[in-house]
Amino acid sequence: MELFYTSTRNNEASVTASQAILKGLADDGGLFVPWQIPKLAVSGEQLAGMSYQEVAYEVMRLFFTDFTEEELKGCIERAYDGKFDTEQIAPLVKADGAYYLELFHGATIAFKDMALSILPHLMITSARKNQVENEIVILTATSGDTGKAALAGFADVEGTRIIVFYPKDGVSPIQQKQMVTQQGDNTLVVGIHGNFDQAQTAVKGMFSDPELSAELLAGGYQFSSANSINIGRLVPQIAYYVYAYAQLKAQGAMGEGQPMNVVVPTGNFGNILAACYAKQMGIPIRKLICASNENKVLYDFFRTGVYDRNREFVLTSSPSMDILISSNLERLIYQIAGRDDQANGQLMQELADTGRYEITPAMQKELEEFYGNYASEAETGETIRRIYETEGYVMDTHTAVAATVYQKYKKDTNDDTVTVIASTASPYKFTRSVMEAIGGECRDKTDFELVDELERLSGVKVPRAIEEIRTAPVRHKTVCQVEEMPGVVREFLKL
Ligand SMILES: *Cc1c(COP(=O)(O)O)cnc(C)c1O
Predict the structure, then answer these.
(1) N or C: which end of the chain has fewer CB within 10 A?
(2) Quick one: average pLDDT of 291-303?
(3) Which atom of ligand 1 is nearest to the CA of 112?
């Protein structure tokens, strides 16, 4: 049966999966959602015997129904291959009374690789299906992590180019080195004199510039975006929750008919929404535990039914969760409003106008499967130290936010259901914060010195992604002013 996608702001809209992937965002500004969440067609026992790639296929074939088996398996094989440093792709590791689902074994050692390693392949397959002859140009502004994961995903993928702008003085030394050493003839990385918001605004400006669009078309190009609201990023993320369940089954950790809990360190709400969709597909999940850092908009939302971004923005040691507008939450709001596009559209308009909205008591009742809480900076560091000292297991700051919130959940509820914690980054990605938590004074040491020290303490080998950039040559030296960004794009594409 073919599954179509509609917009969270217009139920009349209807596109195929491949069209939704190509467009990213609906014309009315809404997000694409499937008409219904399909049910898994395989049993727990069958899942338990499957590889990551096989599980991914079982999930994605139900959502991307206009892809042929051959196309979809091709995308999966090219995405989840030797770029990952373990054949399991997403191993499940037991520590401190929970199961850590390690989503950081890909090219850039953070969980965004799970989706961004397959998105380019889904996109060019979608382009072919829809008779798009143009080369796809991915244009992105990044504050660090997404840019590198997108670069790694799109590098040398035929039929695509990728241009990434980052604030020259706004990313960590390791993040900068990761980006400027990027290989691939179809990649361009540019530092700008300005901050992330200025880069982001300029990129949005280019997307909506009719003159530039015409020049692109004449040159045989069209822009697309790789951001986290694309259904081509969301659906691949469902697969690892199904895989985690399969692994628990295979390890005999779950009794017959027993559910599991899932804890997710949350920013844009994409990762935890994927877990919610896994539940709707039939995976027995009891609680969806949403962990925030000190930017705790979501904690307040789950507690009060009021979403309010009017507050101070806190810079924390878990920067990928420093977010005040969680874009993917819109898909949940639409769902709990009973798929009411008008009601959802109105709330989103209020958010745009006033930075705040309040859901109805009936909608709030639909949120009972969620639990929200947050971790302070001190609690986060303390969790990293405690679990390192008691278990010898070292986790990154984002994962530690989740582990902290899980402790609070257990204390609040006494629920001892088997629990999976999404581990979203390698500790080597945020070495300085991790070493400050477990090793103390770091001020006089370089990031690479800290990397070596972390290896000694943790006994976990330095990942290839870090080793490579130590010695890799710098390939991208372009730096420009914000106003010069369109010119840089024209030059790279020879327009
Ligand atoms: C992006 C990111 C998150 C937040 O995920 P969302 O899907 O945006 O909620 C958490 N941890 C890390 C390391 C990330 O890169």
Answers:
(1) N
(2) 97
(3) 15
